[in-house]
């Protein structure tokens, strides 16, 4: 499925109730995990100490912070759809987010997104998306949930 380009509220509404697409695979590296730990001041050893994680966790390796995987949503969503002709985009809400499985270092993840609903709030599009972060070669996803973006279109 190719990347969608959406220019207006009317165009976005056409995808209501449909799967929007799937992003490319993204590899979670130790460098990315370490930088996230530094940015968030979350230095828990399961993310940073490879030797200890190998022997003391059921994962056998360091794992990405759950919030690191969530923070990839805008990047991966942008691979699925380019929402253009905007004054502004706002991350509005995350609901019923469930972490289903840890993402070990060097795992590949990708986003699957379905547009659940679009509401017109006086010219602002309130878009609710069902999101699933898949882990390559895993039956369980990293997380599932519903996110909401507000799109302030120019027209």
From TrEMBL:
Residues of the MaoC-like domain: 16-127
Entry superkingdom: Bacteria
Organism: Pontibacter populi
Protein name: MaoC family dehydratase
């Amino acid at each position: 499925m190719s990347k969608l380009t959406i220019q207006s509220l009317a165009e976005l509404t056409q995808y209501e109730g449909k799967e929007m697409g799937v992003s490319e695979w993204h590899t979670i590296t130790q460098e990315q995990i370490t930088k996230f730990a530094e940015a968030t001041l979350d230095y828990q050893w399961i993310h940073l100490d490879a030797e200890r994680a190998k022997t003391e966790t059921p994962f056998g390796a360091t794992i990405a912070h759950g919030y690191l995987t969530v923070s990839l949503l805008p990047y991966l969503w942008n691979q699925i759809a380019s929402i253009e002709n905007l004054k502004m985009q706002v991350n509005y809400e995350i609901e019923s987010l469930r972490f289903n499985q840890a993402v070990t270092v060097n795992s590949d993840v990708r986003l699957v997104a379905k547009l659940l609903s679009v509401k017109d709030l006086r010219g602002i599009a309130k878009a609710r998306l069902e999101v699933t972060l898949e882990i390559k070669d895993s039956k369980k996803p990293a997380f599932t949930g519903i996110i909401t973006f507000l799109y302030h279109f120019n027209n």
